[in-house]
Every structure is written in structure tokens, then in C-alpha cells.
Amino acid sequence: MNYECVQGDISKQKDIEAIVNAANARLQSGGGVAGAIHRQAGPELAKAGQELAPIEPGQAVITNAFNLPNDYVIHCLGPVYGRDEPADQLLADCYRNALDLTEKHKIESIAFPAISTGAFGFPFEQATDIALNSLAEHVSKLSHLKTIRFVLFSDEDYQHYQNALAKTL
Ligand code: AR6
Known about the structure:
5 helices; six-stranded mixed beta sheet; binds ligand AR6
């Protein structure tokens, strides 16, 4: 597996087949990642979401990417920290379920944001460890995926991810 880490905007990953949305249960636009993705994708993404919503914490569903420069959006509903339990397990499920969808759709590249670490309040360092460990546990079962990219918004988050990646994967 080729792991990459970049600082930037998840909705601007031109060379990636599937981007992951830090979604809400209704699969509609919102703040942060969901806002950026829905703005770039256009209103059809919310219409596609209506047909699949609501989703549960830990779940992942896939749609077309419409006006985004990608083929697919994989929508993951992370746990709201302090409300959805067990939070660690539900967050790990998001990453595992996203990987399962890449296998099902023969996707070769995926980009993840740091799910649940914004509006949903998950502590960043703990969320990073859960994400990397969940991916590490499941990548060996995949036959299509070649690249996993992490897209971090702030410089501090990017630095933290790079260090954690070097230690874990
Ligand atoms: N690209 C990459 N990362 C980003 C971007 C971006 N454009 N914007 C923010 N981040 P969040 P959540 C970072 O809040 O915690 C929404 O309103 C951000 O700094 O997008 O899963 C939905 O509608 C943080 O580290 O997702 C839901 O209701 C991380 O991405 C709710 O927020 C996740 O922040 C989901 O909350």
C-alpha cells in the first residue's frame, strides 16, 4: 500500500478515485468537510444522499461524485464524541467500511479526512491512532486499492499525522 499525507482540502484531490466525506446522518451539506464536498459536487450530491439516508454512526455509503474531480464519494458518519458509544469502535468501523466499499467497487485510490475530529469533537491524537490502526488491520484483505491519502486541514494536524504514519504504517 502506498500511504500519502498532504495538507489541503479534501475536495481538491484531482488524482484520487474516491474521496471520503465526514458526513452527517442525513447525507446533506454541512460545515467543514461536508460543506466543501457538497459545494464542489453541486446539488445532485444532496439528492443522491436523500435516497440513502439516514445512516448510522460507523456506517459508510457510496455515491457518484458529480462535479468533483473524483469518481466516487464515500460518506462516513463518524461518532459524536461523548454521545455515540463505543466511540473508538464506531470510528474504526468508518475506516473499515470505507475500505470494504473500495474493494466492492474496484477502487484503486482513496483520500480520507480526519473523520469526527471537527464538529464531532473527537480528540485528534486518539482519532489518528484509531484511523491508522483500523486501516493497518484491514488493508491486507484488499486486492484493488493501491493508494491511501490522508488530507489534513491545518499544518499542526498534518505534522501530527506524518509522525504517526511513520510510527504505525
Ligand atoms: N478538507 C480537509 N479537511 C477538512 C476540511 C477540508 N475542506 N474542512 C475541515 N477539515 P468536520 P466531523 C478538517 O467538522 O467532525 C459537518 O457539519 C477539520 O479540521 O468536517 O466528522 C457535517 O455536516 C477536522 O480535523 O467533520 C457533520 O454534521 C476534520 O476535517 C459534522 O460536521 C473533520 O471535521 C461532521 O463532523
